[in-house]
Amino acid sequence: MQLRVVTDQPWDVPADTLVIPIAPEPAFDGALGELDRRAAGEIKALVAFGEFDGKRYTTALAAAGEVSGGRLLAVGLGDPATLDRESVLRVAASAERRLGGRTVRRLAIWITPLADGLGDASAAAELVARGVLEGSYDPRTIYRHDVDSAPPVLDELILIAPGADATELSRAAERGMIIAEGANLARTLSNRASNDVSPAVLADEARAIAERYGLWIDVIEPERATELGMGMFMAVGRGSDNPPRMIVLRSGEAGERDALDRHLAIVGKGVCFDSGGISIKPAAHMDEMKMDKTGACTVIAAIATVARLAPGTPLLAVAPAVENMPGPHSTRPGDIVTALNGKKVDVINTDAEGRLILGDALTYAERLGATHLVDVATLTGAVSRALGHLVTGAFGTPQAFYDEVMVAARKAGERYWQLPLIDDYRRDMDSWYGDLRNSSSAEGSLVKSGLFIKEFVTKPWVHLDIAGTAYYIKSTPFAPKGATGVSHATLVELALAGARAG
């Protein structure tokens, strides 16, 4: 898709469709009034008739009249006072998705109302370009070729910003498109079926990505993982015929990494299918457990995106990939396993497996020199019950590093909610036979999941529990059913802003 930024008036830009962001109860003066006049009053008629109310993510199509665009698409801006980066991103995605099943080759978007709401034209250009590309994603096309209702594949995206610096906005929009391409890569890997993506296949995909973007890669297979002492990681994958892989990706030169005060590691849970193991899950919704690899897919895509945006940026990505299956060699409830850091873990519930593989992966990342760590995982059902499907739960220590991650999140347009690490709950995880249990009582289970992972880090660390936000179980105005790519942009912004920080 070609990208173009123009500073002409929106009615002077030829396109198949012109997108016009409009707030509730709009005043038809200035440029909006002129657009409506040239469209023979079609926009005002949509509002008067009640077909369009300007609420965020609502859309309506109208004839273009004398406007150069073939059709007009009004998209709800919502209250401009509450407009933020997340909503700008989703407004753009909503516009693209509204055109599903239609033939649109040149799409023009008048970004001035969004830029005015944000107070930052460059940010608006980046987020709109990113939103359109993420909005064009349809997971049905992975396996099907007859999806007539998919959003249109564009030849050209035109961003219209009268009076702006076209060069500056073009750079910002190109950046947004690269981030979107990375998010869509993570979504495709996540959406692919478990019989299509085993741990070995995910490692092969990571090798191809590493070769494409000049990354160093190491794939640790079972024999070596056992020799290293990754007892928790190996315990999860014992029941499957598809052996586990610990995938390690690096960017940046060794000398440059060693000279830094900070070396960031991003670690993602990669359970390619989670049956629960011996503690097997109920049948309902088990098909969704192909999504339990989303964290790993996210960190693999994120390091590739960073390499595209800023080649040579020092960054470490670790993706422990396993299948959690019942079988004759499966780990059983009551088994004691030895973690890479030497702790003895009493496996009470084999369906609390993500924290096991993350623990060894985080320890290994520290051994490779990581000084700051962020892990991303579809870890607990409790987080979705607490926060729903639009907010990611997050833990972190110390607070200063957590705050840095949240600065990156705000720039990325992603929402997180901090959860407490209450040390008094740690005693509930004590084991009679080992150092700790991997599962405890349901009370405070979300907090205890964070406390368990904390046992395996000694450096500044943030845990992002994306179990509620990693995928949608039904479509929204701004995204289809399936993987969302959540946290990808946050990790990218963090790596670019903080990898060289002191």
What does this structure look like?
It is built from 16 helices and 20 strands. The protein has 502 residues and is an alpha/beta fold. It folds into two domains: 184 residues, 3-Layer(aba) Sandwich (Leucine Aminopeptidase, subunit E, domain 1), CATH 3.40.220; 306 residues, Aminopeptidase (3-Layer(aba) Sandwich). Strands 7, 8, 9, 10, 11, 14, 15, 16 and 18 form a nine-stranded mixed beta sheet that branches. Helix 11 packs across helix 16 and helix 14 crosses helix 16. The mean pLDDT is 95.
Ordered list of secondary-structure elements with their pairings:
Elements: E1 2-6, E2 15-22, H1 30-38, H2 42-49, E3 59-63, E4 69-76, H3 85-98, E5 106-110, H4 112-118, H5 121-135, E6 156-160, H6 166-191, H7 199-213, E7 216-220, H8 222-228, H9 231-236, E8 245-251, H10 254-258, E9 264-268, E10 270-274, H11 294-309, E11 315-324, E12 336-338, E13 344-346, H12 354-367, E14 372-377, H13 381-387, E15 392-397, H14 399-412, E16 416-418, E17 436-437, H15 445-454, E18 461-465, E19 471-472, E20 482-483, H16 488-498
Parallel strand pairs: 1-6, 2-4, 2-5, 5-6, 9-11, 9-14, 10-11, 13-17, 14-18, 15-16
Antiparallel strand pairs: 3-4, 7-8, 8-11, 12-13, 15-18, 19-20
